[in-house]
Design brief:
This protein is α+β, with helices and mostly antiparallel strands. It has 6 helices and 35 strands. It folds into 5 domains: about 35 residues; about 120 residues, Macroglobulin (MG2) domain (Immunoglobulin-like, Sandwich); about 100 residues, Beta Barrel (conserved putative lor/sdh protein from methanococcus maripaludis s2 fold); about 100 residues, Efflux pump adaptor protein, beta barrel domain (Elongation Factor Tu (Ef-tu), domain 3, Beta Barrel); about 130 residues, OB fold (Dihydrolipoamide Acetyltransferase, E2P) (Beta Barrel).
């Protein structure tokens, strides 16, 4: 009897459990079918990006819109602007004006449509003198809640191999995206160039007399800035037994004073007709010759010797002599450079000879700071290229001239990418968009402004700033062009949640 009662209780308990489970499943399914749905809208104008998360638009119901506004000039949040949100359907319009953001770059709107159909959502950013529109097309207004919830079953963006990187995160770092496009990309000649000062931008200062170098109290060192006319050091011949500049200066001074006195005396005698005009002319010539010699020595010498001064404003690029060293006339002593105009000398292989006449541009990369400049950035030009080779060197020389607007130093090496004109159209991306992992390259393709798909790509040629993409992405897709490594690092710091980090 007890066994029968226990068995009956077990059956009743099991049946009740099954019923309760079915009820829970029904409630969960009902709750799931009516869970909150958020639609995502993305649009770009000339100046702004908008990424909005909104409730479905349903007749007679207020829809909340949380919109993130980003300035495309620097991908930072838009703030302190009046923005109007307008929903237009079938010729009708509903709007909401916000004069201040809820948070920097984030605006909240409420719209209550009264007509169903397909329309567009317009955001108007008002400035002091003008207004700018950002238009989101293909926005649907539903008749009732059930129709709106049908979109919940539609396939959204795939989360496979994607990384969430919120707008709040991207606003805090160096970040940018751009559309991939097809453009001109001709053959690239990659080589190394040595930097040299341009002619006229550098002057070698040579000795004008024999003597001993005497440095002034101020140190003259390589790299020291100097001004035009600034005295750098003296060349003294006081200690020389022969060709003594000091002796020559004293002799010239005495000859000048004597000739001047003789000329002045004979000029008075000529006025009294005591000496002839011919004699007066001879004394005048002697005086003028002595004056030229003396003034020339006085200009370049004093009793301490010849003064060596800087012929231009610039810096001491090379100091060839030392204090106390003996120099002779014409000997180079130092090099003063302005470092404004520079020459890039490179040599290329003969197999590129047919492209030399087609080279129209170049990119220059400095290895010490990994910066890349275009020839246009540096107001540069191609000066010349070789028309032949020699038995000593089978390479073909090419020379470019640039203005030193970057961190360029004479005598150093740079990477040079010579760009030839060509009618080939290819898909290119900035080098900053590429992520390398064990020899494989990837880019981050934007699914929406907060969700990015990691996509492997195959590379072609590179010009130092942009790289050809053979396959992996297509024109029109939007990729991360700045801050790609930060997107990659965010994968390890947070779970995959496209809403992570939002402050709603």
């Amino acid at each position: 009897m007890n066994k029968i009662l226990i068995l009956l209780a077990t059956v009743i308990f099991t049946a009740c459990g099954q019923q309760a489970g079915q009820n829970n499943q029904t409630e969960n399914a009902s709750a799931h079918s009516h869970e909150a749905i958020k639609l995502q809208y993305t649009s770009y104008s000339k100046y702004y990006e908008v990424f909005a998360e909104a409730d479905p638009f349903i007749i007679g119901q207020k829809a909340e819109i949380l919109a993130h506004f980003t300035k495309l000039s620097n991908f930072k949040p838009l703030s302190n602007k009046t923005i109007i949100a307008m929903l237009q359907v079938n010729g009708e319009e509903w709007k909401h004006v916000k004069h201040q953001p809820s948070r920097e770059g984030i605006y909240r709107f409420q719209l209550e449509p009264e007509s169903a159909g397909n329309g567009k959502l317009i955001f108007v950013v008002k400035g002091e003198l003008d207004a700018h529109q950002i238009i989101v097309n293909n926005v649907k207004v539903y008749t009732n809640t059930d129709d709106a919830h049908e979109i919940h079953h539609k396939e959204g963006p795939s989360l496979v191999n994607t990384i969430a990187f919120t707008k709040e995160q991207s606003w805090k770092v160096g970040f940018a995206t751009d559309s991939v496009s097809i453009g001109d990309f001709g053959p690239i000649i990659k080589t190394t160039a040595i930097i040299q000062s341009a002619q006229g931008d550098e002057i070698v200062v040579s000795a004008k007399t024999n003597g001993i170098i005497q440095m002034n109290g101020e140190n003259i060192l390589v790299g020291k800035e100097v001004n035009k006319g600034q005295t750098l050091f003296n060349i003294s011949g006081n200690q020389l037994a022969s060709n003594n500049s000091h002796v020559r200066f004293i002799e010239a001074e005495n000859n000048y004073k004597k000739a001047k006195a003789e000329y002045e005396r004979h000029k008075k005698l000529a006025a009294d007709k005591i000496v002839s005009e011919e004699d007066l002319q001879n004394f005048k010539n002697q005086y003028e010759n002595a004056s030229v010699i003396y003034k020339n020595l006085k200009k370049n010498f004093d009793k301490g010797g010849q003064q060596i001064s800087s012929p231009i404003d610039g810096f001491v690029r090379q100091l060839i002599v030392s204090n106390g060293e003996y120099v002779e006339v014409g000997q180079a002593m130092l090099v003063v450079s302005q470092n404004k105009k520079l020459l890039l000398h490179a040599e290329i292989q003969q197999r590129y000879a047919y492209l030399l006449g087609k080279i129209t541009d170049a990119n220059i990369r400095t290895p010490h700071n990994n910066k890349t400049y275009t020839l246009h950035d540096l107001n540069g030009r191609i000066v010349s290229f070789g028309k032949s080779t020699s038995t000593d060197n089978f390479m073909i020389p090419i020379t470019l001239e640039i203005e030193n607007k970057g961190d360029f130093y004479g005598g150093t090496l740079v990477e040079l990418y010579l760009k030839a004109s060509y009618d080939k159209k290819v898909l290119c991306v900035p080098n900053s968009a590429l992520i390398e992992e064990q020899g494989n390259f990837s880019v981050f393709v934007q699914a929406n402004p907060e969700l990015f798909e990691k996509r492997e790509v195959k590379l072609g040629a590179s010009d130092g700033k942009r790289t050809e993409i053979v396959n992996g992405i297509v024109a029109g897709e939007r990729i991360v062009t700045k801050g790609a490594i930060l997107v990659k690092l965010s994968q390890a710091s947070a779970a995959l949640d496209p809403h992570a980090g939002h402050v709603h």
